[in-house]
Specification:
InterPro entries: Aminoacid_DH-like_N_sf (IPR046346), Glu/Leu/Phe/Val/Trp_DH (IPR006095), Glu/Leu/Phe/Val/Trp_DH_C (IPR006096), Glu/Leu/Phe/Val/Trp_DH_dimer (IPR006097), Glu_Leu_Phe_Val_DH (IPR050724), NAD(P)-bd_dom_sf (IPR036291), Znf_C17orf113 (IPR057456). This is glutamate dehydrogenase (NADP(+)). It comes from Anisodus acutangulus. Keywords: Oxidoreductase. Belongs to the Glu/Leu/Phe/Val dehydrogenases family. It contains 24 helices and 15 strands. 42% of the residues are buried. Strand 5, helix 12 and strand 6 form a beta-alpha-beta unit. By secondary structure, it is α/β, with parallel strands linked by helices. The protein has a five-stranded mixed sheet with strand order 3-4-6-5-7. It has a five-stranded parallel sheet with strand order 9-8-13-14-15. The protein is 47% helix and 13% strand.
Amino acid sequence: MDDMNLIHQAQRHHLVVREIGEEIDLEIGPGDDDPSFSNNTLINVPPQDSAAEDHDESKQMMIHHASGGNQDLLKTQPAKKKKKVVKRWREEWADTYKWAYVDVKDGTARIFCSVCREYGRKHRRNPYGNEGSRNMQMSALEEHNNSLLHKEALRLQMASKDKIVVDKPIYVKALMSKTAGSMIEAALKRDPHELEFIQSVQEVVHALERVISKNSSFVSTMERLLEPERTIIFRVPWVDDRSETHVNRGFRVHFNQTLGPCRGGLRFHPSMNLSIAKFLSFGQTLKNALSPYRLGGSSGGSDFDPKGKSDGEVMRFCQSFMNELYRYLGPEKDLPSEEMGVGTREMGFLHGQYRRLAGHSQGSFTGPRVNWSGSSLRTEATGYGLVFFAQLVLADMNKELKGLRCAVSGSGKIAMHVLEKLIAYGAVPITVSDAKGYLVDDDGFDFLKISFLRDIKAQQRSLRDYSKTYARSKYYDEAKPWSERCDVAFPCASQNEINQSDAINLVNSGCRILVEGSNMPCTAEAVDVLRKANVLVAPSMAAGVGGVVAGELELKECNLNWSPEDFESKLQEAMKQTYQRALKAATDFGYQKESPEALVHGAVISAFLTIANGMVDQGCV
């Protein structure tokens, strides 16, 4: 009777496994018909504990012994094609290995998902979890990878462009002085996991080495500056159109208000985190200090993704976001502006809820629609300012933009306005890009083509559709535009979009000037490549001042009757002042005007000295 129970149990066991994964055979152990298979370990993972496999073998032997009376029946069954199954596994799970690792849980070796750090049993009805043979574990992981929880975790992971969850090493630059090195070391100890923030700190400290060596009192000032005045993290619950509840995380960092009230962008993107919020607000603090206005710096946003959301869902999220943030905003405190994922729709919803909660609309947010606030060219200001700045750089070289081939990344507001103004100056912009690849048109874009690109983006179509209308253009999947022959590059997509290999491609493609449209578009390794190749870099801290200028003009002057010519005249004058301030600071500290580092170091030096002198005057606050 006990033997019959064991047979039924084995049969039930076999049925469960067949139900979980098709063509799965428990009797095939790891290594059968392919000795190399058992030696293949998962990426960066210790091999599976042999205790679990011994447990499986003893379990199979027990079942085999119990079914001794039925051996003749089992012999008559056709043999399994083990080699074919093992080969199929090796091909199908080649990508899965990248997402998996082995760890011991409650004394049993299990295969975990690298995205959400859970194993199959957590998300399945399989009573055996993913314990047992390697075959059963892989079946459990397959079902886990198809679960809704895993797909959501995978979506968030892909959004951050990190395919494997590992600790990314921080690239530490070689510094001339021990004092500068100690400042970087202190920042690393305090915030070891905030990679973007540490990277931005390194670039600033590197630019300030000569300043610190001349005046050691600035060391303590810099230590205070590197710590934000206020960091706000809050939850943002909201309800979608199916009445399902979601929770996102909101951020706002008031980095420094020495010079005046804060101004800075809001970014809605799945990759948004505290490190990015701090790096953006730190950069905005320096950018505002370099501008003609006395302003502090801030930034923030949420890991909410507005793409694919209805207007109602975006409105409910924005209202919930503002329910917490409004108490920290105001014309003399902090006013947000548009950034990645935040356009006129989002800013309208945010401002409406702010007005409702605050009971007034003083100091309306920068960037909303012209019919109820602000200047008519606010959205164009940043992109136009980049081109104006490039023209100033070229003018000092006795050159002009006319006829130069320009590679542009991104296809958002800034990139589109860069294309517009490049065409107006007679340049030949040849590329734009999105998250999936880039589009190149060797004939160059014109105003008609830009209008078509805007229609494609408005309809949320792929840039690939452009090639269906213009046959001489081509779209490249999973690639960047930096290998295309160009004279000037305008990275306008996101931070760290240019890595070391991209920088090498840029140098080889003939690029001699890089104008940063996005914040910190180059990795530290890429910056080193560009400097060694004498590529002149116009930093976003200086070249991106146009957005700050337009925002303050619309708040302070509130003149809705400006002509585009008047506005551009004011913008050009502000960009010229910024350019001259950066160059003067660089030459004051011994950098040659022709040096590729002059603008980068000069912009940081000028901004830092403005803030530092104010901090010294105001005391230790």
